[in-house]
Amino acid sequence: MNQPIRILIVDDHPLLQEGIVMVVEHEPDMQVVGSAATGRESIALCERLQPNLVLMDLRLPDISGIDAMIAIRAKWPTVKVILLTTFAGDAEVNRALKAGAAGYLLKTMPRKQIVESIRQIHAGRRRIDPGVAANLAEHMGLETLSQREVEILKQVAEGNRNKEIAHQFALSEETIKSHMKNILEKLGASDRTQAVSIAVRRGIMQL
Amino acid sequence: MNQPIRILIVDDHPLLQEGIVMVVEHEPDMQVVGSAATGRESIALCERLQPNLVLMDLRLPDISGIDAMIAIRAKWPTVKVILLTTFAGDAEVNRALKAGAAGYLLKTMPRKQIVESIRQIHAGRRRIDPGVAANLAEHMGLETLSQREVEILKQVAEGNRNKEIAHQFALSEETIKSHMKNILEKLGASDRTQAVSIAVRRGIMQL
DNA sequence: CACCCGCTCACTCTTTCGAGGGAGCCTCCA
DNA sequence: TGGAGGCTCCCTCGAAAGAGTGAGCGGGTG
What we know:
Rossmann fold, alpha/beta, DNA-binding, homodimer, six-stranded parallel β-sheet, Arc Repressor Mutant, subunit A
């Protein structure tokens, strides 16, 4: 355990990259081996730099942080990936953890807690930000939308009518209505507009 | 001009604070005199530390960065305030610039451009991130919603029916319909759901 | 002063939504 | 093998939403 933790930073904010470097390099047992600003770059740098641990933002310019993580974990299963982001609804957190994230931290966390979490995660424990965990617990057991339902809800957010959506997907309007009924019930929404609001808040979709 | 630029940082992400400090302290003509994590704290620190320039995030835990800026500019009109944020629709940028922001920068900006912008702004020029400016130009001349309209649209996003909104505001349902008609036209939306989507994207309201 | 604009309200009419039923098909998993 | 759940489709019906049109009031501005 004398080897320092080799960390790769993935974030498209240069200032934040800089901040992480500063905080992490302060710790004798950690070392930043590189920084990437995009998902694809992060995969390439994993190849080259062989980090033990990746600190990854969720929103990246090219592919989502979750997809980048999936790609990295597929090639290098021993690499631990920590999502470090500003906030996310329960849906994103769930997807991240299911996809094998070793941790889910918020950027609002104090420096000390972040380095401590990195240490814990590197030692094999799983860390989830208390705020995120509370949010998760609140939505525990809450149903998530199917792919089809998300597709449809996105169209709804764009102002399409059921009939138009049906036409786009080559389906019957009745089918769309049926999906909408399920969406409203799953999200606990009283109409399509609130359904979009809730879905965005919970990280099920973006606008 | 031998005095360094005294900078106050306002951001609720410790890591980003750290990053700004590192980048800025690298410059001989700049000095970070303090960091605040909330809007109220930023006002208090302005009092104590008398900075020349404030780097302010838009989203803060207590009050919005714009409101904090307004408060600061009211008390210390010579202090220049730069909004430094991840992104915002044209509505937020417009409000910020109207309220006297000296600059509007994005966190995705490279380090060099940020320090250069700080220098320019301190010298009296106004700097707006090219990406933001493009977005602004795109929406130039686009109508904005009145206060009443925003209030109503927020209720719409919560899934309230026209009748319910009318009751809440002690208005006629016909009045709400009339407002909705104006909202749809101003935003170029085909229905209330898309109106909410567009308003959120443009920074007119949050969910 | 006239004018614009935000806010208010009214009436009609068509379209759309969402609630209420039900049903068949598929796949995955216990 | 038997659910469970996702996807598809059908019917009815009342309640909303939105288009169309019109109008009065108050405040601010050229």
